[in-house]
């Protein structure tokens, strides 16, 4: 049975807080998630409430981020849009992990399946992410579920390649050979001995996929192939503000800053977790 070193939770928490980039990234993304979760309590107005009299108002004490061309409060819409972006990012990440881990384990553990699955992965990664996502959404029809499924399929090959490469190495290690010799079922070897030792790279890659999925969702919404237009998203907010650049810059600035902060914080978390969990980079555990 493989020996897995486990760092005590208090010690791990201390090390996470000691790494400034990781701590900052966690603080920012948790703050964004908290605002999104408490949107009904924090937002001063309904996200789709119209007030033509107050259209294109600049940021003020009444409208913190100003208003758009229909008089809708941009602060409220930005918070509500964060709920959708985080939901899509999290759901797409989970979906991509399920597909990627399954394909990666099968390709890395079963030699006969490796050639077929590896070629499928290479073929999918040959297409630009955003073009493949647009094609899938166009084929399945625009909706929230479609966007999640499309992004999950798009980013699954990234994780599958990492899982496959690691599995190819782990399956040749002595403890796996010993488990086979003892007659341990294949599914148990894959889950107990192989998958258990892939938690660190999977966790790190999942944070990056989360960031990519949120950015891709904003891009799809910006291009008009994402979720329904009446649902506030950061991408649609930036798209609607393009024609008012120079006249009402706040329409694009605030949702743009929200996207930057979300993606950057997740990237910082991913980098910090990689440094913390990789034994070749970790010096203080």
UniProtKB/TrEMBL annotation:
Cellular compartment(s): Cell membrane
Top-level taxon in the UniProt lineage: Bacteria
Stretches assigned to the ABC transmembrane type-1 domain: 82-270
Signal peptide: none
Alphabetized UniProt keyword annotations: Cell membrane, Membrane, Transmembrane, Transmembrane helix, Transport
InterPro entries per UniProt: BP-dependent_transpt_permease, MetI-like, MetI-like_sf, OppC_N
Membrane topology: Multi-pass membrane protein
The keyword Transport is assigned to this record: yes
Transmembrane segments: 22-46, 84-110, 130-156, 250-273
Family per record: Belongs to the binding-protein-dependent transport system permease family.
PANTHER family: OLIGOPEPTIDE TRANSPORT SYSTEM PERMEASE PROTEIN APPC, PEPTIDE ABC TRANSPORTER PERMEASE PROTEIN
Protein known as: ABC-type dipeptide/oligopeptide/nickel transport system, permease component
